[in-house]
Design a protein that fits this description.
Strand order of the largest sheet: 1-2-3-4-13-12-11-10
Helix content: 10-25%
Order of helices and strands: EEEEEEEHEHHHHEEEEEHHE
Mean pLDDT: 89
Strand content: 25-35%
Number of strands: 14
Radius of gyration: 23 Å
Structural class: alpha+beta
Number of helices: 7
Shape: elongated
Low-confidence stretches: none
Largest sheet: 8 strands, antiparallel
């Protein structure tokens, strides 16, 4: 477990990395999210065309180097046999660099020499020759924190004087993209402790825990936010309700990309 700090985030909070996830808590609530590629730095493009982009990237938290494949079309998926993003060691790195066909993509000698040393214990010093790398190292934690998108402010005119009663949960059902025999279910719990209400969501999709996608979000609800959540719960109960839109609004709120104002 590694405790981390945001370079510009003020206020009291606790943040630490554990098991590939960022765990965070402050006065607004808490969340646990997968770090994923947000800590990656692009080292070298190996191939780029309309179907696929292949590259070498490094994880700025661990120093692990990855062979990354980004397919742009279905043709890319069908044509290329190496579709998986995988961690690579020195021999594979040497081979990948040697096999670059496009002369414009071949690294200049200083960069080539640096890349050929990877992975190594002093990787940060070795790669400091790359423009922007030192700044990326300084900010390597910042992009991990929520929000990941620009914050949207939504006005809600409900009165704080007479708060509507909140249900224990908001159940949303969306058509599955895989099968027509069942819907995808999303449960947003509304927890109460004393006079405090909390909106809670956890990804309970089968297999999520095996892929480190068992995300957890919590937001402590102000009186204004309680009224807004209650209005969405009421809307979700209608026969013609757009459950996908309601789900998106709640997730934006939990991801701190949406704020409710008067």
């Amino acid at each position: 477990m590694e405790y981390i700090k945001h370079s510009k985030l003020n206020g009291q909070y606790t943040a630490f990395l554990n098991g590939g996830c960022l765990n965070y808590q402050d006065e607004k609530g808490a969340y646990k999210i997968l770090v994923g590629k947000r800590a990656w730095f692009h080292l070298l493009t190996l191939e780029e065309n309309e179907q696929v982009t292949r590259s070498l990237d490094i994880d700025l938290l661990t120093g692990n180097v990855y062979y990354s494949v980004d397919n742009h079309t279905g043709t890319g998926l069908a044509y290329y046999y190496d579709m998986n993003t995988t961690k690579v060691w020195n021999n594979r790195i040497l081979r990948l660099i040697k096999n670059i066909r496009d002369e414009d993509l071949k690294p200049e000698l200083p960069l080539k020499r640096a890349l050929q040393k990877l992975p190594c214990n002093d990787w940060a010093e070795v790669l400091s020759i790359i423009p922007g790398f030192d700044m990326a190292m300084e900010r390597r934690y910042d992009d991990l924190f929520l929000p990941h998108q620009e914050v949207t402010f939504v006005k809600f005119n409900g009165s704080d004087d007479s708060l509507p009663e909140l249900p224990e949960a908001i159940e949303l059902h969306l058509p599955s993209q895989v099968t027509t025999s069942a819907d995808l279910s999303y449960t947003f719990q509304i927890l109460m402790e004393g006079d405090t209400y909390t909106l809670h969501y956890e990804n309970n999709t089968i297999g999520a825990e095996f892929f480190n996608e068992d995300e957890v979000y919590e937001r402590l609800l102000s009186p204004k936010e309680q009224g807004w959540v209650a209005s969405l719960a009421k809307e979700a109960g209608k026969s013609d309700a757009d459950h996908e839109q309601i789900r998106q609004l709640l997730m934006l709120f939990l991801r701190r990309e949406l704020e409710i104002i008067s």
